[in-house]
Amino acid sequence: MRKPYPTDLSDAEWNYIEPHLPAPKGHGRPRIHDLREILNAVFYVLRSGCQWRLLPHDFPRWPTVYHYFRKWRIDGTWERINRAIRERLRVRLKRDPQPSAGVVDSQSVKSTAVGGEDRGYDGGKKIKGRKRHILVDTEGFVLKAKVHSAKVMDYEGIKTLLRGADQAFPRLCHLWLDAGYRGEDKGKDWVQKTLGWSVDLVERPRKAAPKEVLMAWAREWAKEGLRIDWEKFMPPQGFQVLPRRWIVERTFSWIDHNRRMSKDYEKLCASGEALVYAAMSRLMLRRLTRG
Predict the structure, then answer these.
(1) Rounded Cα distance, 12 and 243, in Å
(2) Which of 42, 110, 124, 189 makes the best surface tag, with the fewest CB within 10 Å?
(3) Cβ 254 vs Cβ 283: under 8 Å
(4) What is the full DSSP assignment across 203-260?
């Protein structure tokens, strides 16, 4: 027995997640480690941000924990757990298990000196690393995640993210996207033509004209005896809550609460995707047991 960590699964959380773990094959050497302890160790790494080799000694050995993490990444267990918990939670919220609408966005994150595949430079965000591209439902729960190089433009990355999404989510028929997905045969246009879904572009208010031009117009109208408040034609200052866009931004915030996700530390993009599913599964488990 060991002292519990704050990241450990409770009994109620374990009862929700246990049925979705791979069953023993029935042959070979008997399993000597409890899968609950393996999950506790993975969630400890995810939340604390420590390296696999720095796992506390009261967990199973780090090669064993990483073996299970890698194995479940390859066979899709992390994604299946995320899907099962998400559908259970949507039913709890009196929603259909399968969503009919979603939101897509990407997050550029810095990489480290670990090295690995698919790293690039995002000129818009001035970040060298990778992009986390996610599709979420209207509750903010992750439906699908894809990690790729930061140099890949959003309107190209969405094609990789949504490949096969029409079969995986048969009720999904509408998306909200930002202005980065504009373009012929790119982003919005590609989704409409390939998947047959409707798409709304949610954009920030545009300026009627540059500030200097508006002030010049106001001065000219003032000569004619008309007083015009040019500041009314300027978009609102500061942070703005855009319709539906805030949902996916909140999801990125949820994921970033885990220190392992503060940067991209992984050598493989697939490992980053698995950690996204693990982070969301942990969050949704807490919500299930809270109710």
Answers:
(1) 35
(2) 124
(3) yes
(4) -PPPPSS-HHHHHHHHHHHHHTT----GGGGSPPPS----TTHHHHHHHHHHHHTSGG
**Cβ-proximal residues to 74 (8 Å cutoff; 6+ apart), any chain:** 270
CB atoms closer than 10 angstroms to residue 275: 26
Predicted TM-score (pTM) above 0.70: yes
Instruction: Give the C-alpha separation, 247 to 104, whole Å.
Output: 10
Tens of pLDDT, residue by residue over 94-112, are 999 999 999 999 999 999 8
Judged by DSSP in three states, 278 sits in helix
Higher pLDDT, 31 or 221: 31
* Rounded to 5°, angle at Cα 191 from 268 and 132: 25
User: Which residues are paired to 88 by β-bridges?
Assistant: none
258: left (phi over 0), alpha (psi -120 to 50) or beta: beta
Would you mind telling me the total number of residues written for the chain in this entry?
A: 291
